[in-house]
Amino acid sequence: MFRHDKLNLYLFIVLVGLQALGVVALLTRFQWSYLPIMLAIYFWAGLSTTLYLHRYLTHRGFEMPEWLKFIFALGSAVSLAGDPVTWVGDHRYHHLKSDTDEDIHSPLHGFPYAHMMWLVRKPADFRDKSLRYAADVRKIWYCRLWERPYFYIIPHLLVAATLYLEELDALRNELSIGAATNGAKPPGRNFAAHTPPLPSSVRENFPFATPATRAPASWSKTR
Fold this sequence. Notes:
- This protein is an all-alpha fold.
- It has a domain at 9-162.
- Helices cover 57% and strands 0% of the residues.
- It has helices at 9-25, 34-58, 66-78, 84-96, 111-115, 126-132, 141-145, 149-152, 154-181, 200-204, 217-222.
- Helix 2 packs across helix 4 (84-96), helix 3 crosses helix 9 (154-181) and helix 4 (84-96) crosses helix 6.
- The radius of gyration is 32 Å and the shape is globular.
- It starts with 8 loop residues before the first helix and ends with a helix.
């Protein structure tokens, strides 16, 4: 039913771009300090999708404190799992029409479509159908706010910017420490020209003195 609908080219490019960024990340330098951050975001995002969006928000399988709901909703936004209203509406519709021609992501339409292509081939009128099954979710203020893409992407960008700036600051500190320990010299300065000559008494006992450190004859005469 849906597999022949018009492709949402913009969303398709975004999804492919995100996968490409994941591949590019493999080319960056890895540090063990990244591991706890990676695991924390991985579990936060995973629980936000499976526990919050699916088991709690869609199926109302249990209850949790309000602050925890917000933490998990934030995690779903950070991981770009999909705004809660759309996610819940699509999933409830999927259960209502499971494995029929109207199922939004049924394997009957083929694995590629059931896995991801359904995201970029939704009919224009499908959102209206989906929203009817997520009316309760729209009553939650942040879920309603995140229906707007430019608000929904803010948590993701804030976390990404924070991690990037932290890494940039750490890299700058590392470079400055490395420069100090390696005796780096400011560019464009001739240190030999600014080195004061050694006194004659020292120079006589310093056979390895370089021309820059030997006192000139005029200096000895003035002494």
